[in-house]
Amino acid sequence: QVHMVESGGGLVQAGGSLRLSCAASVSIFEINAMGWYRQTPGKQREWVATITTGGSTNYADSVKGRFTISRDSAKNTAYLQMNSLNPEDTAVYYCYSRRVGVLSWGQGTQVTVSS
Description:
Blueprint: E1 4-7, E2 10-13, E3 18-24, E4 33-39, E5 46-52, E6 57-59, E7 67-72, E8 77-82, E9 91-99, E10 102-105, E11 109-114
Parallel strand pairs: 2-11
Antiparallel strand pairs: 1-3, 3-8, 4-5, 4-9, 5-6, 7-8, 9-10, 9-11
């Protein structure tokens, strides 16, 4: 299992930006995919974005054009740059990794967007 450590959440006003980080305990080239889900109370966890080993990216329609996922292989870290945030983006964000079919999760970080 891959150990994932998240950082970067916080409180921001609508229209603002935040960047989440997710550091992995192994080389990201050993990981098939990394990304984020988010969850609000009473709702299922919602997929947000993914970046694969090859660098391909995918986004949920709700964040496309506003969020950008990237990675730094030297730091074994993925990033989620979130721009034009709105109150509907408020959630706990969980980074994940998928390695040989095994999912690992970060501890989660709260993102709160005030109107």
